[in-house]
Amino acid sequence: MIRQAGPVAYAIFALLAVVAAAFAPLDDYMLHILVQTASYAIAVFGLTVVLGLCGQINLAQAAFFGFGAYAVGLGTADLHLDFWVALALGAAFALVMGAFLGVATLRLGGHYLAMVTISFQQIVTLIMVNWIPVTHGPDGVGSIQRPAHFASAHAFLGVCVVAVALVGYLVWRLPHTPLGRAMRALRDNELAASVVGVNVYRTKVAAFALSALLGGIGGGLFAGGFAYVSPDQFSFAESIVFMTMVLLGGVASPIGAVIGTALLIVLPESLRFLKSVPGLYLAIYGLAIILIIRYMPDGIWGYVQQRARRWFAPPPFGAPPPGLAFAPSHNGALALEVRQLAKYFGGLRAVDGVSFAVRRGGVHALIGPNGSGKTTTLNVLSGVYIATGGRIALSGRDVARLPPHQRAAAGLGRTFQNIRLFRSMSALENVVIGAERSGCNAGADHPALVERARAALAFVGLEARARERVTGFSYGHQRLIEIARALAGNPALLLLDEPAAGLNSSEKLALRDLLKRIAAKGLTILIIDHDMTLVADVAAHITVLNFGRRIADGVAADVLRQPDVIAAYLGSEPDAAARP
Amino acid sequence: MDLVLQLFFTGLGIGAVYALVALGFVLIFRATNVVNFAQGEFSMVAAYLMVVFAVDLDWPYGWAFLATLAGMALLGVVFNLGVYYPLRHRTFLPVIISTIGASIFLANTVLALYGPQPQVLPGWFETPGVQLGPVYLDSQYLLIIGVTLVLVAFNHWFFEHTLLGKKLQATSQDKEMAALLGIPVATMIMLTFVYSALLGGIAGVLVAPILFVSIQMGSTIALKAFAATIIGGFGDVTGAIIGGLALGVIETFGAAYLSVPYKDGFAFLVLVAFLIFRPQGIFGERIAEKA
Predict the structure, then answer these.
(1) Measuring CA to CA, which residue among B113, B85, B78 is closest to residue A283?
(2) What confidence score (pLDDT) does residue A578 get?
(3) Which among B108, B115, B261 has CB closest to A283?
């Protein structure tokens, strides 16, 4: 069927490429160029993963490439290891170093990563040049061996093409796996990814380590192809070449990586006069980077794809989606119990000893004037902030110290006042990521996740537009997609942060009906909003905050009649006593 | 003990250069939320301009310096218009990549024009230095430390006590609000780039007589300066200066007592140590993203 057509076509194409590589009459020069292209392409696939999918920068790919190359070089020439053993060692070393760098820096923003990878690259070059007893220093390593059965240049090219085909396939499929979706989600919006259950830090480290691993594999093949390696082949300049390749071809797809790699290897070869002036071709690369980023941010392949997209539209869904079922756990009568919750920012007590309980089923509202600590409370509940003190029990389990993705796994879903969708993805993909949260029993296989995501979209009335990119939806619809994303995770408790903010009156009515339908299905909702009509209409229970403290709590109608609450909202009567 | 004092002085001198470049980093970061990866190339380009004016054309040192400053101001304008401004509404990643492209472009254009041979720029003073007790004070190091002190004082006065400085601060803190108050945001960002190109340029001219003037000096200085900003606390002006001085001293002692070939590696080790154990730096505060 159509789902299978892509992989089959890919396999046939790859097989043809391998046969052509092994048997086509190629002179030494062409073989040389093709081996270089293939080994570089694998390293550039690494950048497709880390930069294209995950949005993290890696300016040390030549260093990881160098690890693989030196492992094969020193392993086969000095230690007389088998080629494959040396390659595996080099790849493993690159993986470990990549993971180490990632663990050390990925908690921080992208600037740090860029600088640290440049520093790392410089250190590796320093070591390659100066640690002469091991690396042979600037002389480099010669007489590198190829694998026993693939010693001819032709046969080795065949090996390289097989490697490109295999790695390329994996990188091509990666965006559609849970790990790949997590990478794309955090690239688009880290905070939203964490509250729908993505372990942001671990995913970034995985992407970075994977990128380093591919660099190492590419480098090992490169060393086998050229029989000689030296430090200048793995300098910072080469890292820039890798970066230019992936940007030129297109960061989003391995096809782009291959296009960029091939172009930047073949073009300089055919424009050899550029190399006669030192620096000239790198100056052109630098300029090319600036121009590509400005005028062609998706690269060559991205541009082609955009043009061709309408011919490759995915097939429409056959059957209508199933109804959306919720099966929240029923441990205890309370969905949420908050006790003495506190959050201080320096001297500011934004939330100061607040306690309340949310009963299972139905809608509970948290209200209060501006600056009363509502949104801070929500952020502390969902783990965006860590509480200064107090206890948060979700279905009886204390989650106060957990990071956001583990609270999502424990059954907490939330939306944001300022919408945080994954902007490069379709509505469906956004909701699939929500459905994927661990602990949700939607089923682990992809069709089941898609069914659940479609059901969630149908529940909010947007299933017909599931395949459209979220940026094309109106503000009100984007809010509904965010709610669908939270619903798809089958949460035990749904936190809604001012869902009515910015909606027009008819959208507000639709939202009210949606909340009532969700509540009717037995899902517990904790809502923050300023729209008192909405709150009074849907909430059975209300907690009121003012100045970070709880001033009222109880059945909705009673709470809204209390003088304190009215005073907090409308100001007290002129003759009433002033606040102490 | 004498050696320790001597190394300390040398370290402060080289650290002052890192501090100046780090200051340029921080100012651009605060104005645009982007790290300018070509900041080190500003120093490199200025050093080469100085070689052209003072050595090749044999102009008087002072005039050559002024001409270099004019060239750097122009570079700041062109850099802003070509590299940053068109991408100002995009996320930080494209802007970073664009400044990296600019860094590669600048370094290799200079290489293509001037060749790989390192150049020598004489110092400003004829006298090589003075002996003060056990410590020999090289005149160029004295000059570097002196100029850095003056520039730091100027920086403080400019940002805290002039209207233009306040406008620049307002722009860096909230562009939309600054625009609503009638501050020409685009001009302010342009000025920030010019100012930061001048700071980087002065650092380059000051350090050139100590090092060889080479293509690599830009990226070397930039890495040290970036490490300095992290040690001090990212985005913090005082932190960048203290971090730069500290790094210069650490590195000089490391080269003297541990290893000369790996001198440039110490900055990286210090950087990673800070990232792991105190990522907010000495002065910085942890900043959480607002939901």
Answers:
(1) B113
(2) 45
(3) B108
- Alpha-helical runs (H) found in A136-199: 153-173, 178-188, 190-195
* Amino acid A576: pLDDT: 46
Tokens 């009963």 sit on residue: A359
Q: Which residue of B82, B93, B111 is in closest CB contact with A55?
A: B93
Under-50 pLDDT residues of chain B = 286-291
Q: What is the pLDDT of residues A372-426, one digit of tens each?
A: 888 888 889 988 888 888 899 888 888 888 888 888 888 888 898 888 888 888 8
Residues of B in contact with A378 (CB under 8 A): 291
Q: Do residues A311 and A509 make contact, with C-beta atoms less than 8 angstroms apart? A: no
Residue B17 is predicted with a pLDDT of 87
Give the total residue count for chain A. 580
Gap between the Cα atoms of A186 and A475, Å rounded: 21
Helices and strands per DSSP (H, E), number in chain A: 24, 10
Determine, for residues B223 and A122 on separate chains, whether the beta-carbon distance falls below 8 Å.
Answer: yes
Q: Which residue in B has a C-alpha nearest to residue A378's C-alpha? A: B291
**With an 8 Å Cβ cutoff, is A111 touching chain B?**
yes
| B262 contacts on A by Cβ (under 8 Å) | 126, 130
CA distance B198 to A185: 40
pLDDT tens for each residue of A478-503: 999 999 999 888 888 999 998 888 88
**Euclidean distance between CA atoms A452 and A463, whole angstroms:** 11
CA–CA separation, A477 and A483 (whole Å): 10
**Which of B35, B98, B268 faces A111 most closely, judged by CB atoms?**
B35
Q: What is the reported pLDDT for A30?
A: 85
Model pLDDT, residue B291:
40
Mean pLDDT value across residues A336-349: 86
The radius of gyration computed from the CA coordinates of chain B, to the nearest angstrom, equals 19
Could B104 and A286 be called an inter-chain contact, meaning their C-beta atoms sit closer than 8 Å?
yes
Contacts of A47 in chain B (CB under 8 A): none
Residues in chain B: 291
Q: Which of B83, B86, B291 sits opposite A191 (nearest CB)?
A: B291
- Determine, for residues A283 and B115 on separate chains, whether the beta-carbon distance falls below 8 Å: no
Which chain A residues are Cβ-neighbours of B37 within 8 angstroms? 114-115, 118
CA distance A50 to chain B (A): 12
Residue pair A99/A209 in contact (Cβ under 8 Å)? The answer is yes
Banded model confidence at residue A236, pLDDT cuts 50, 70, 90: confident
Q: Is the pLDDT of residue A329 over 60?
A: no
Q: Which residues of A touch B276 (CB under 8 A)?
A: 104
User: Which chain B residue's Cα is nearest to A188?
Assistant: B91
Give a three-class secondary structure readout of A312-355. Answer: HCCCCCCCCCCCCCCCCCCCCCEEEEEEEEEEEECCEEEEEEEE
User: Residue B98 — φ and ψ, nearest 5°?
Assistant: -65, -40
